[in-house]
Design the sequence.
């Protein structure tokens, strides 16, 4: 796989061979494309509308117990032994944060990013919305077995009409949708445009959701990862709770986690918070959200237990995502079913949250990789995490 060279444009201030600053060449049309993404993913509020997540009045302290990773090397799977820093550079890392037992053991920022910089989390958003959904199930606000149309009657007559809330949580609803990022004609690209392009959908994502009528299979008969399912889930959560999604997220997750910096949710043309890919936060605040799960505090404890049991492994194995051997998908989380009780949240262009419920190891990384799909680097990340775990022993 040949990739373009790693550039540090934000610190340099200009693009190669051009006298126009990079921030003046980034637009709504190109901000998710490399190399413009190198700057844009740290400046989304300057590009698209958003709703703020005010920092907690009781921020959680993150103690430091630094471990040098200078001597951590591992096989990259392509016949080369690489260092941890080479791994970070190769995967176009913007931030890498590793915690063990609640303490920071490694923290590195690249590409002009700092500890106070919020970064676009993309589909990592889905996983924390899934956690929020499970919390509403635990407190009785949301019935997982209820049809989605009970909460959102606007979905009557669509492909989602026969699905339950649980089908949305686990993405087994069966609505037909092409999420192939490498295909320029795939549904996902037009769907993403509906967030901020009035010509595509003046009513934002919800208008587009109401147009999805085709089905691949009956609900519960197959698993397939698709972005609009998370937005449908976010719509259900907002209706069930009677709250704007960002407000509910702030009250139930952001503040209880003790998030210390301001974050934000991107909103679409209708002003609705984007559940599937709207979250922007600092690496440390994503870590604080992850620690809610690892420490299983409060109502999040039962919700985490529901997630950690995993989804239907047979459906997962039959899907195109079976590259994660023995895995499953549950409540918008990728569950590994390994001895570490690992779970992951993944977002395009290199966003990752790795949580080990059994060991307390947490890895947060933000990136601006030129390629959207995480499948290109998934094996390398799995090797890196295994090497890290062994190194820390």
Sequence:
């Amino acid at each position: 796989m040949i990739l373009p060279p790693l550039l540090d444009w934000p610190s340099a201030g200009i693009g190669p061979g051009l006298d126009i600053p990079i921030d003046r060449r980034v637009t709504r049309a190109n901000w998710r494309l490399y190399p413009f993404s190198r700057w844009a993913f740290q400046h989304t509020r300057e590009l698209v509308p958003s709703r703020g997540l005010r920092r907690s009045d009781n921020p959680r302290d993150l103690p430091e117990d630094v471990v040098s990773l200078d001597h951590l090397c591992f096989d990259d799977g392509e016949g080369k032994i690489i260092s941890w820093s080479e791994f970070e550079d190769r995967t176009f890392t913007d931030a890498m944060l590793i915690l063990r037992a609640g303490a920071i053991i490694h923290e590195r920022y690249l590409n002009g990013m700092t500890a106070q910089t919020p970064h676009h989390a993309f589909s990592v958003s889905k996983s924390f919305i899934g956690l929020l959904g499970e919390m509403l199930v635990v407190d009785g606000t949301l019935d997982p077995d209820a049809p989605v149309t009970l909460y959102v009657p606007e979905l009557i007559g669509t492909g989602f009409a026969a699905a339950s809330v649980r089908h949305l949580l686990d993405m087994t609803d069966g609505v037909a949708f092409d999420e192939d990022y490498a295909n320029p004609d795939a549904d996902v690209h037009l769907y993403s445009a509906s967030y901020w392009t009035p010509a595509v959908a003046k009513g934002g994502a919800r208008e587009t959701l109401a147009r999805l009528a085709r089905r691949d299979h009956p609900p519960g008969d197959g698993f397939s990862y698709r972005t609009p399912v998370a937005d449908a889930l976010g719509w259900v959560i907002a209706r069930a709770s009677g709250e704007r999604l960002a407000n509910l997220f702030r009250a139930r997750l952001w503040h209880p986690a003790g998030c210390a910096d301001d974050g934000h949710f991107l909103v679409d043309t209708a002003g609705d918070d984007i559940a599937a890919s709207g979250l922007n936060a600092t690496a440390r605040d994503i870590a604080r959200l992850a620690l809610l799960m690892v420490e299983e505090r409060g109502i999040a404890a039962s919700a985490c237990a529901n997630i950690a049991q995993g989804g239907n492994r047979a459906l997962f194995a039959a899907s195109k995502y079976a590259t994660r051997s023995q895995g499953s998908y549950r409540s918008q989380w990728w569950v590994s079913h390994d001895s570490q009780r690992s779970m992951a949240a993944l977002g395009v262009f290199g966003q990752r949250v790795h949580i080990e419920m059994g060991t307390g190891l947490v890895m947060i990384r933000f990136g601006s990789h030129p390629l959207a799909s995480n499948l290109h680097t998934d094996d390398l990340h799995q090797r890196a995490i295994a090497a890290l775990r062994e190194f820390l022993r």
